[in-house]
């Protein structure tokens, strides 16, 4: 295992912050500093075993004990935190979506270019071994030309009108919710696998709960119920589900369904690639297997690290077949790629993690989806960089 000497600082200790922490520790990387809100920082740092707690991200990004800043706070803080970290000359791993709109994301793209440090957007799904294997099947031509792509990202944690999280408020999460929060994972993953970005979209958004109950006080992601038990009714201004037709730059067609009100689907990201030679399909809730479909021969279900799986995931899978790797491992693999790049900037290894440009593009796709929904027409993706 590489010995990473770089030290990390973490901003946010809610749902995903501890996932970053755990993956970093598995890589032997020390997290020296935690930043969170004044009423949470010290207790969270003590609980998570992080030596230093601060409540101002500007203190964390300037700390000489932090070389890599992990931003795991709600979306509206990504821009100021990312810009501050870049100004301080730090490497950055920023959670998705990169920021609230493409004006903000283009500022981050420009700042990342100026800083010349490593900047990754945490689209972790790229690092499932099966996703890397599918990418290799596409790039080596084994699927043939991709004709069309089908898939969905479904969850049920916002199924009830009493389910609440900051993502439901556009000022906290951005104007789109299900699409920006989980749809961008799907779109980033499929674009990564195809090696082709989304060029145009036709979208229909839907809101099942037009009003919801908001607890008095905050609620952590995926947690149930409220702390005080008291709620107030509020009007919902972003979508619970969406249907999107896609046209990729390579002319492949796609259709994507996204929902956070799909009862029974906990965290299912699924996509199927239909090529001119054969097909391939994957579901994140069965992460270890890939389905390969053929017209004139038997279909196959291939298992990670077995011969038929291919070696597209080489270097990004640690355990033998049957010793399941899943969600937490994708963070470990993504961070391994980021820290390796940060320690060897001249390396010629391909950059597999999402870049600021990728994060910027996903936000521009979200904006096209909103324009398309409002205009009831196809919308091309405009991705200005500043
Ligand atoms: N890659 C993934 O699979 C994945 C999964 C979940 C969330 N996310 C992303 O991670 C981010 C955080 O989501 P979450 O679900 O962990 O949210 P959360 O609400 O559970 O946690 C957010 C944390 O940030 C802290 N925080 C809020 N404002 C802050 C500030 N000004 N300064 C410092 N800390 C602050 C909160 O106190 C909390 O500890 C979001 O951008 C989300 O889209 C990514």
Question: How would you describe the overall organization of this protein?
Answer:
The protein is of the alpha/beta class and 386 residues long. The chain has ten helices and 17 strands. The chain has helices at 17-26, 41-48, 57-62, 78-87, 102-115, 129-139, 170-173, 178-194, 327-343, 356-375, and strands at residues 8-11, 31-35, 52-54, 68-71, 91-94, 119-121, 146-154, 198-206, 211-215, 231-235, 241-248, 253-259, 268-275, 279-283, 289-293, 300-303, 379-380. Strands 16-15-14-13-7-12-11-8-17 form a nine-stranded mixed beta sheet. A six-stranded parallel beta sheet has the order 3-2-1-4-5-6, sandwiched between helices. Strands 9-10 form a two-stranded antiparallel sheet. Helix 8 packs across helix 10 (356-375). The protein is globular. The mean pLDDT is 95. Residues 11-17, 35-37, 40, 57, 72-75, 77, 95-96, 122, 124, 166, 181, 220-221 line the site of nicotinamide-adenine-dinucleotide.
Rg value: 20 Å
Which CATH class of the largest domain applies here? Alpha Beta
Order of helices and strands: EHEHEHEHEHEHEHHEEEEEEEEEHHE
Strand content: 15-25%
Structural class: alpha/beta
Q: How many structural domains are formed by the residues?
A: 2
Quote the CATH topology of the largest domain: Dihydrodipicolinate Reductase, domain 2
Shape summary: globular
Count of DSSP helices? 10
Helix content percent band: 25-40%
Cross-sheet strand order for the largest sheet: 16-15-14-13-7-12-11-8-17
Bound molecules: nicotinamide-adenine-dinucleotide
Largest sheet: 9 strands, mixed
End-to-end gap = 39 Å
**For the residues shown, what is the average pLDDT?**
95
Low-pLDDT stretches: none
The CATH level-2 architecture of the largest domain is identified as 2-Layer Sandwich
- Number of E-state strands: 17
CATH H-tier superfamily of the largest domain: Dihydrodipicolinate Reductase, domain 2
């Amino acid at each position: 295992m590489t010995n990473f000497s770089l030290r990390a600082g973490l901003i946010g200790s809610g749902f995903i912050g501890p996932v970053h922490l755990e993956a970093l520790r598995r890589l032997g990387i020390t997290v020296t500093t935690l930043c969170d809100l004044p009423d949470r920082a010290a207790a969270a740092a003590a609980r998570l075993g992080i030596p230093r707690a601060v409540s101002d991200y500007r203190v964390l990004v300037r700390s000489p004990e932090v070389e890599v800043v992990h931003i795991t706070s709600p979306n509206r803080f990504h821009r100021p935190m990312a810009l501050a970290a870049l100004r301080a000359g730090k490497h950055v791993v920023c959670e998705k979506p990169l920021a609230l709109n493409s004006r903000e994301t283009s500022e981050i793209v420009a700042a990342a270019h100026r800083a010349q440090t490593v900047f990754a957007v945490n689209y972790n799904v790229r690092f499932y071994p099966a996703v890397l294997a599918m990418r290799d099947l596409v790039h080596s031509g084994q699927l043939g030309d991709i004709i069309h792509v089908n898939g969905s990202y479904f969850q049920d944690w916002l199924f009830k009108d009493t389910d609440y999280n900051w993502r439901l408020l556009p000022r906290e999460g951005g104007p789109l919710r299900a699409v920006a929060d989980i749809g961008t994972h799907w779109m980033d993953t499929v674009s990564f696998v195809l090696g082709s970005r989304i060029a145009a979209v036709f979208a229909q958004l839907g809101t099942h709960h037009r009003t919801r109950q908001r607890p008095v006080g905050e609620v952590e992601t995926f947690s149930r119920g409220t702390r005080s038990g008291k709620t107030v009714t509020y009007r919902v201004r972003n979508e619970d589900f969406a249907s999107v037709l896609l046209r990729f730059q390579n002319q492949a067609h796609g259709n994507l369904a996204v929902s956070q009100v799909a009862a029974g689907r906990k965290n299912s990201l699924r996509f199927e690639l239909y090529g001119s030679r054969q097909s391939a399909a994957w579901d994140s809730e069965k992460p270890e297997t890939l389905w390969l479909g053929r017209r004139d021969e038997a279909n196959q279900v291939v298992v990670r690290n077995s011969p038929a799986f291919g070696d597209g995931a080489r270097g990004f899978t640690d355990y033998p077949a049957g010793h399941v790797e899943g969600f937490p491992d994708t963070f470990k693999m993504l961070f391994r790629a980021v820290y390796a790049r940060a320690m060897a900037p001249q390396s010629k290894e391909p950059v597999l993690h999402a870049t600021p440009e990728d994060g910027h593009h996903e936000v521009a796709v979200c904006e096209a989806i909103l324009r398309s929904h409002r205009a009831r027409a196809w919308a091309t993706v405009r991705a200005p960089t500043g």
